Every structure is written in C-alpha cells, then in structure tokens.
Amino acid sequence: MLTQSARERMVEQQVRTCDVLDERILETLRVVPRELFVPERWRELAYADCEIALPCGKRMLRPLVVGRMLQALAPRGGEQALEVGTGTGYVSACLARLGARVRSLELHAQLATLARANLGTMASDGGVEVIESDGMQLQEQSRYDIILLTASLPIYQSRFERALRPGGRLLVVVGSGGASQWASLIRRASEQAWSSEPLFETCIETLEGAPKPAAFAF
C-alpha cells in the first residue's frame, strides 16, 4: 500500500539518517498510521519532513523530532508516561505502542476531542488517557517514569522534573526560538538529585502559557 511505503521511506530517509537507530522506535514509527492523526486537508503531507498545521494554531512535530525524542526517553513496558501537549494524539499512540501507560494533557478542548477520536481508531486507545488541562499548572510530585513536552519552554520549569519518580526521565526543549532551542534529557537520580544531558538542537513551537524572558530595555 502507498501509506506503508511512505512510512518506510519516512523511517529510512528521515528518521534513521538522524541517528535514530533503536529498532523498537523505528518499528513503532512504521506501524503507527501517522496519516490518521493528520487533518484531512494536509493528509498528503503525513510522511513529509515538515511540521503540519493543526487546529487552534498548533503544529504537529516533524517525524524525525518524534523519533529522536522517543529514542532518548526509551520507554519500557508498564511505565507511567505524562505527555504535555496532546495535539492530535500521534505521539501518545507511539508511546502506548512502546508499552507506556500514557496520561496526556491538552489545553484546547477541540484538540483533546480530536485526539480521543483518533486514538479510538487504534488498539493502543486503552493505554492513553487524554485530559483537557493546562500543563503549566502541573503540581504532581514523584508520579511519572517518563515526561515528554511536545512544545518548548522559553525558560526551564522545575515543576516537570519534580513530577518524575526517582529513575524517571524528562524530555524537554528549552529556548526562545531558532538556534537557541536545545532538547535535553533530565534524569531524576534520587529524591533530591537530578542530572541533565543535552541532546540535539531543534526548533519547535512554544508551550502555551509558559513564562518568557523579560523583554530587554535600555
């Protein structure tokens, strides 16, 4: 089928060439039907190397960015994952396919409804809970094994690392835009210790409601 060959080209020509070599991640991207999570008017771009416009002014991450994020997090079966920014549910479906139990927060009711409908077409639906909520109001402590932010933070927010269990991993992109954005993997070593590993440079949209640096003034 055309979509199967398009998925294979996406994996081999976009994702693998960016050093995503974990076969579990590559197989997940081959299996999860990305086209089902793309708005119908943009469906021909489902496997293109580009962001895709979503309702509410949001954008769907490029496939290679999704692959790099998932590889860094290395989800394991049975882990509790928190996703901040559900969008249309594609990354949620990938996390569930990798065995995680996913709680996904989406600020916009329209997108939350759309994501639930999209995930309802997948066998992974039972592993994903989509909640209409503002991720910037997260107050939970020591609950999650994995946390993934699908939008960037202009200023790092420690609320997300505090929501990790010891041994948990947080994938976050920090920066105000352009070349200043970096993806990092934060690990919680113990109740009071975290470590940070810079991963790759990227450019993704800003998490709505996230604090921004004060404007420079003379």
What does this protein structure show overall?
This protein is α/β, with parallel strands linked by helices and 218 residues long. The protein has a single domain, classed as Rossmann fold (3-Layer(aba) Sandwich). Helices cover 27% and strands 25% of the residues. The protein has helices at 2-15, 23-31, 63-73, 90-97, 109-119, 158-162; strands spanning 52-53, 59-60, 80-84, 101-106, 128-132, 144-149, 164-174, 182-190, 193-201. The strands form two sheets. It has a seven-stranded mixed β-sheet. It has a two-stranded antiparallel ribbon with strand order 1-2. Strand 7 and strand 8 (182-190) form a beta hairpin. Helix 1 packs across helix 3. The longest helix is centred in the first third of the chain and has 14 residues, at 2-15. It starts with a helix and ends in a 17-residue tail after the last strand. The model has no long low-confidence stretch (mean pLDDT 93).
CATH-derived architecture: 3-Layer(aba) Sandwich
Strand order of the largest sheet: 5-4-3-6-7-8-9
Tell me the number of structural domains.
1
The CATH topology is given as: Rossmann fold
N- and C-termini, Cα separation: 60 Å
- Helix percent reads 25-40%
